[in-house]
Specification:
This protein has nine helices and 15 strands. With about 290 residues, it is α/β, with parallel strands linked by helices.
Length: about 290
């Protein structure tokens, strides 16, 4: 049976539709909280506008976000990192942990698009002549030489390509996660998506204050971007089941876990994708 909560003075009614416990602030009845198993929907109906704060279970404590001011970041889910024939695979690394992210990220993106969240993809890629990879003695250039950055290769589909070079098969987004109309794509040439890119300008133009992170790898490009985002006062939520790290993946404590701990302590929050999807679903039903 639906529970109807009248909002006095606003001529509106909110139908909780069996979400669970609904708590209304005393007095002017401007705020309604709808509590679910893994998330809480807090509708702020005060003032002339209408904003929505969704609270989700997270570490080290619950965290809230306004969908209209939140972007989902898809970090470097590209062929070079997550597919056979890409840079990591050619270097002898097991890309399965990154490939396994496709399904949970896809589910998250579906929910985000249904709720009109901004989706931002990043691709790590360089000019064909590597002129944006640093000079010969730059750490970025040196560290990527062992991964054959810029090398000419034949992609699995038989076309000519180059490792970590833009406009090639290698740096294309994994097909199952292909960007859709309205999504933003940021080309970057360092680990952080903020370094010498238009990302900050894009986010501020959209009044974004919260970033939900997915992608690879956790301790390199994801964490680098999270740190730079935190320095710019964005609220960062990293999804544990939508990020992966190959470094030390077979040790007792992986780099993935170490990065998540650092983020939880000093840079933001971590959560599961289902908590975000559930919160978005509940907010859509409440609307």
């Amino acid at each position: 049976m639906d529970e109807i909560l009248p909002l006095r003075g606003y001529g509106r009614r909110l139908y909780s539709r069996g979400f669970g416990l609904a708590v209304v602030d005393a007095g002017r009845l401007q705020r309604v909280m709808v509590v679910g198993s893994s998330s809480t929907t807090l509708l702020d109906l005060g003032g002339m506008g209408m904003e929505m704060q969704l609270s989700i279970a997270a570490r080290p404590e619950a965290v809230s976000f306004d969908p209209s001011r939140t972007a989902v970041m898809v970090i470097d889910m590209q062929n070079d990192f997550g597919c056979r024939g890409g840079m990591f695979d050619r270097a002898g690394l097991d890309v399965a942990p990154i490939a396994h992210l496709v399904q949970p990220i896809s589910r998250l993106l579906e929910a985000a698009r249904r709720n009109a969240l901004l989706i931002v993809y990043t691709r790590q890629e360089h000019n064909a002549d590597l002129s944006d990879a640093g000079n010969e003695d730059a750490p970025h250039r040196i560290k990527h030489k062992r991964l054959n950055i810029g090398a000419a290769v034949v992609a699995p589909n038989g076309i000519q390509s180059q490792i970590l070079v833009r406009d090639t098969w290698n740096t294309a987004i994994i097909p199952e996660l292909e960007p859709q109309p309205g999504d933003a794509v940021i080309s970057k040439h360092r680990y952080s998506a903020f370094f010498e890119t238009s990302l900050d300008t894009l986010l501020r133009a959209r009044r974004i204050n919260t970033l939900i992170f997915t992608g690879a790898t956790t301790s390199i490009c994801v964490e680098s971007t999270v740190r730079d985002a935190t320095f710019r006062d964005y609220r960062c939520i990293v999804l544990r089941d939508c990020t992966a790290e190959l470094i030390a993946a077979d040790t007792m404590r992986s780099n993935h876990e170490a990065s998540l701990l650092a983020i939880e302590l000093l840079f933001g929050w971590t959560a599961e994708s289902e908590a975000v999807i559930d919160a978005l679903s509940r907010s859509a039903k409440a609307g």
